[in-house]
Amino acid sequence: MASPPIAILGTGAHAPSRILTNEELAQRVDTSHEWIVSRTGIRERRVAEPGQTTADLASAAAAEALANAGLAPADIDLLILATVTPDLDMPATACLVQQRLGIPSGAACFDVNAACTGFLYGLDVAWSMLSSGRYRHALVIGAERLSSVLDWEDRTTCVLFGDGAGAAVLGPARRPGAAILASRLHTVAGTSDLLHIPGPSYSLEPAEHRRVIRMKGKEVFKLAVRAMEDVARELLEQQRISGDQIDCIIPHQANQRIIDAIAQYLQLPLDRFFINLDRYGNTSAASIPIALHEARTQGRVQPGQLVLLVAFGAGLTYGGALVRW
Ligand code: COA
Prior knowledge:
Shape: globular
Order of helices and strands: EEHHEHEHEHEHEEEEHEHHHEE
Number of strands: 13
Structural class: alpha/beta
CATH class of the largest domain: Alpha Beta
Bound molecules: coenzyme A
Strand content: 15-25%
Number of domains: 2
Number of helices: 10
Strand order of the largest sheet: 1-7-6-4-5
Distance between the termini: 23 Å
CATH architecture of the largest domain: 3-Layer(aba) Sandwich
Radius of gyration: 19 Å
Largest sheet: 5 strands, mixed
């Protein structure tokens, strides 16, 4: 008998309780609530408490995803964590989460860095590894503590980002039809300088570099719209489905205007898009899994529905996945 397809069995999310509003930011840098809302749609974001790390946020989100899937830590034999803000340069933050959750020795644990597309890169890798039959259940986590790599004096970046984590459990489908149907990952060559965190450069003394996000916002904006539109079209064509068959689109939560543009180019109504960036800002690898979890818990994603995930990020990486819930 053919083995069942791989599906998402559960989701979870966790964000720090500390809310940083636009008004508070306007007291630190030369900006305003009105400018931030009109240019980005962001109203507030979460920021980690001192000492609260990416592994802390990831562990809480993953524990919720496990509970939602009705699985125990011992059921997990693959853990992939997407982040650009790992607790340590080594070992991988995935190994720290393994220990926190009590996932047994023997599980494969590693991090991926594909910036804001990281969760979709992790999802594709986990899907492939589970489909091979060599692993049974995977935890895929996107988690970030971006507040520690922001230049809080740079108004062009510090207003955009936030902290948080989201997670999904993957395994053999339990309902007929439920499955990850397709996934595509890409990178635009020659665009690494548009969005980056200089360092850690092991050829420099620590005092010589600042590990903060630097970005050419306008160029990123244009490429982001084109990349997400392209990968969405690619997936639809590959699966021979039309845009109006998609029940819910979960885009990377970077900027309301980017989402508006994609909706316009794909000729899809905006109410088909799940949007929570107003409350979280851009949480990079955590953005899609937090949104997916909220969409599911709010009933926006129902069994049998078709869900499209699309993201872009530093690299510039981009990708998409089609999931039958
Ligand atoms: N508050 C007030 N003014 C600001 C500001 C802020 N937070 N940030 C920038 N400005 C100013 C600029 O200095 C500029 O002033 P100037 O005309 O006097 O030079 C003006 O606003 C317009 O700046 P511009 O960069 O043209 O704005 P924009 O419409 O392109 O919006 C971004 C800027 C960053 C919001 C937008 O480019 C963007 O979202 N890009 C994509 C970024 C992204 O998603 N990155 C993550 C990828 S995963």
